DNA sequence: CGATCCCGCCACATT
DNA sequence: AATGTGGCGGGATCG
């Protein structure tokens, strides 16, 4: 196209030649000449100029119209430059010129293409999220500006925000140093703490009135202001800069604003901040007084900041329905809890990862690195201390996906499910014994989706709920009650575990691992990571639906994510069907002390890293969406089924139970491996017990011991969000806890929790519960071996072929459900399965080649919208 | 028509 | 003074 234009332009241009802004031209890459022979100005050389330059030249020369067009084009070029269109000939255009031209141009250039958010993504794509420490990446503003085809001014907008989060630091004039997200969590934590100080605790920014949320800041703000000034908070970290002088300038208002803005999110309970509120707060004025103009300006800046944060995957745009109507707002989808503290559980939501492509290399590495780094291992784990290491970071990928659309649907579904679940749950919960249902929550993301539509307080609810579930710890204790009726889906959604049950549910997110005995676990981070990329969307899916609160039956698991548990070969089928639900793991053992530990924030344990990766994935809305749907339906059906099933303990959650049993049986290994889901898997995570068979499974990647297996799958999504819990391992290794007790779980959670969010995963020790009974529906629960076997096979397959559907299915928790209730299957299965399948695939792949997977699948996946995938999957499932 | 937010002028800071 | 930074808000575009 450009070509065309150029050609057209050429004539004119040459003549004028004016000055054009060469300045801008800079370093563009030289293009091929193909096109343009146009003589650029003086220099005949076609090539030399970069596309941009040419354009500019032309533009200047050209009429205004032309300019615009040109500009637009320019934008593209940098990015894609080459698309030469071929035809210069395309007469049509030429002839038509104007009209035609316009069209073209219109297409391209839209204003959005130049948006700061997009620009920021491009910018971020150039650097690895987690650069090796060894490499120091310096960023030249001029260079970047030219490469990206924008004026330097725009780069400042991006860099200033990034700097506020310490992703970059200014080293010299025109030079910035890229740090990546390694310290992001730390920075966020600081901001959160600073925010608390300033703003006071959790604010109540909003209160949601029942359904609608409102945010009121009013008063709360007040305080903020005072402090706000202080930059110290913000930057305390930034030392360098500081040089004294620094303060003075107006400085950095953008930087400061950015930090404050982030703080608002971190302090907010709902994690949603409306623009106007933020603007008011940031303005310092507490009151409305502010002049309108000032307010307006502030809002403008906030948009700039929000675009960058959105690109970073830390927030996403949502709308809040208030009294007056809907207001633009942003929801925090980044990590919420930082190791030390507990905040709210959920935090992230979905992010899509559109970017992946962009980042490509970078991403992978990052992820990988991340994974590698961390492991979330909880070493101590079970024993009380939990030393977990991991940092968790959530990384978010970039949001952006369009896909969200579907979310709504999901949301609605979820909601309904949630409601149902809730009821059930409530009922279930009643039993005190059970602590709470667990919910998995996978869903944080969901809420997002929902949010808009649902006024209800989904968010709030969710958050609260989640915590409650968990067991432990401190995590979130706050919220405990599940219940709000209103609570939206999320609550429900999460899979709750039943108290007694021995299972754990994990959210779908990707990763985590647990270790029972082992401390280390291995996490396979890499895979997970990979998963993120590829599967992100999918992953989340699993998480969602948590609703089931059912008691013991596997349902729980199922609900949100799909857990899978089973897997026998034969079983596979079954399993597959089950799919969606999150898995629950059952871990029989108990952990002894762990709980306590858990209670603590778990700073240590979390597997941050993995999480991070996951988060990314998780975050993506898309994923969540998917999850929701899947989960939802299933849930419902499940519920019913479950209910019925509940009766039969045995059948129901096969996977889980047996697992648990197995675990019980095998006490040995407490360890589990966690495998992150890869993209495909997204939802599920697998846990393997260390013990088992020998190498049955070897994960490709992982070093871990191969485990044989008894694995548990956990939905990845959930995990990400939530802290995982590890059950104590199994058996005895740890101290034996009473079976029933949660302790084990707790402990597990604990560690996990630290990580992530609040949501916890639970693992119940339960073995107790039904091990016998329930034992897994799927196959034989009883036989521990099976599981192992199953898994292994699966794994093997996965590795080998990865594709296997069936295997996959098996793994998933879902299966469990199905097993229990065949009837239900139909519904659920579909939805579920898909997920499962994917998950499996991915997983396996991940195991084998995580990376490869990503690429392959990821791409594919990406291509297809999540929805599509689902559909596809679902279709498949039927068989 | 309100929400977004691109664009780039221009002031202030730094060199 | 030149150049780097970045506040700021007009007004175009989007939805």
TrEMBL record:
One of its GO terms (molecular function) is DNA-binding transcription factor activity, RNA polymerase II-specific. GO terms for cellular component: RNA polymerase II transcription regulator complex. It comes from the Eukaryota. Residues 65-77, 626-661 have a biased composition (Basic and acidic residues). It holds the Pfam family WHD_E2F_TDP. Residues 1-109, 223-249, 336-360, 387-408, 472-495, 522-608, 622-661, 859-879 are annotated as: Disordered. Residues 111-180, 249-334 form the E2F/DP family winged-helix DNA-binding domain. Its main location: nucleus. SMART domains: E2F_TDP. GO terms for biological process: negative regulation of DNA-templated transcription; positive regulation of macromolecule metabolic process; positive regulation of nucleobase-containing compound metabolic process; sprouting angiogenesis. Residues 472-493, 522-559 have a biased composition (Polar residues). InterPro entries: E2F (IPR015633), E2F_WHTH_DNA-bd_dom (IPR003316), WH-like_DNA-bd_sf (IPR036388), WH_DNA-bd_sf (IPR036390). It is found in: Nucleus. Keywords: Activator, Cell cycle, DNA-binding, Nucleus, Repressor, Transcription, Transcription regulation. Coiled coil: none annotated. Belongs to the E2F/DP family. This is Transcription factor E2F7. It comes from Brachypteracias leptosomus.
